[in-house]
Write a sequence for this structure.
């Protein structure tokens, strides 16, 4: 009989990581296991990658819902348990990916897990003071990244523009692709002016220039922006993803891109709804991790590898933690690979 259990786990950042929402020194999550009590050697690991202050499922009853879902496994059909979690995106992600691991990822086939299908990723530069950010940019460029994403919106805007000017004085758009992520830091009134200023530096795109939930203002920006706009938190804010909701949001706002974070955008199922709605409308997309451990990151990479894309993906967060789960994942510069000869080294957890 199929069984489930969960355990809390706290990931510790190697150094404080800053966004426009504040500085993070740790991130709490929950690990979940699916197993058949008649075949204990077969276990599927998943990560319920709760994101405090961002995910739509950051609610006081989170752990109670997770515990209830684990109890229901083996009592109700597994598909029903997963469907009941449609408003608890990170829990759904954990259960879906644990099931895929248990079943050998047969629903999302690729050659990633054999080491034959590497994924190109962008280099992520966290917010900090000007000198620190410039040093981090230099490190990414020296490591061979051809696509760099900068978090902006927390320090002086003119200093951020100066950072971009320095990079562009050394590297053209053909040499380095620059993406920026404002995390909703601009107001609707100031956003057009700031987008015009940023456009001088040949940016690939800007993620979420204004706070999510302002569909009319975002639609106006997308209609006349000098920089392609990618929706991020706009998707995360949607508590329950449905085909009608995805169609409505994309038809109203008409963005140039969307960013899929499977643990925050409805799990694998919800992310596919968003992606297919985008493809039908000619909207570009890419996939980004959301500070998961290597368990969640590996699952997102497997999902990504099963899809038709050649864009750099946002899966470069596996080296952020001092106590990440040791895994066959390997990041060398802008290339993320899976080494099948490697081994997972799972921590000892207190299961519930």
């Amino acid at each position: 009989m199929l069984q489930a259990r969960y355990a809390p786990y706290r990931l510790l950042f190697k150094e404080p990581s800053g966004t426009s929402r504040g500085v993070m020194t740790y991130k709490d999550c929950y690990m979940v296991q699916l197993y058949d009590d008649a075949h204990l050697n077969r276990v599927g690991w998943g990560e319920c990658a709760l994101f405090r202050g961002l995910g739509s499922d950051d609610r006081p009853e989170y752990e109670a819902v997770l515990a209830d879902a684990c109890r229901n496994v083996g009592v109700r059909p597994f598909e029903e348990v997963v469907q009941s979690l449609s408003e608890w995106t990170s829990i759904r992600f954990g259960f879906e990916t644990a099931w895929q691991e248990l079943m050998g990822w047969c629903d999302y086939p690729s050659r990633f897990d054999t080491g034959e299908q590497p994924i190109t990723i962008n280099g992520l530069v966290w917010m900090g003071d000007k000198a620190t950010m410039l040093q981090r940019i230099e490190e990414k460029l020296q490591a061979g990244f051809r696509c760099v994403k900068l978090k902006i919106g927390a320090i002086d805007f003119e200093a951020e523009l100066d950072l971009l000017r320095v990079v562009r004085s050394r590297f053209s758009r053909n040499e380095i692709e620059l993406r920026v992520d404002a995390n909703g830091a601009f107001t609707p009134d100031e956003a057009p002016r700031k987008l015009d200023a940023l456009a001088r530096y040949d940016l690939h795109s800007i993620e979420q220039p204004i706070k999510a939930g302002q569909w009319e203002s975002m639609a106006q920006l997308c209609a006349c922006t000098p920089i392609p706009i990618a929706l991020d938190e706009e998707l995360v804010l949607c508590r329950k993803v449905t085909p009608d909701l995805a169609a409505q949001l994309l038809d109203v706002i008409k963005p140039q891109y969307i960013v899929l974070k499977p643990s925050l955008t409805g799990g694998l199922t919800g992310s596919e709804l968003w992606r297919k709605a985008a493809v039908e409308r000619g909207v570009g997309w890419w996939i980004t991790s959301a500070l998961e451990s290597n368990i969640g990151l590996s699952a997102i990479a497997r999902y990504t590898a099963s899809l038709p894309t050649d864009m750099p993906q946002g899966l470069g967060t596996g080296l952020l933690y001092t106590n990440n789960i040791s895994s066959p994942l390997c990041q060398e510069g802008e290339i993320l690979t899976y080494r099948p000869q490697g081994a997972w080294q799972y921590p000892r957890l207190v299961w519930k």
Summary: The radius of gyration is 20 Å. The chain has a mean pLDDT of 93. Residues 121 and 313 are 4 Å apart (CA to CA). The longest strand covers residues 2-19.
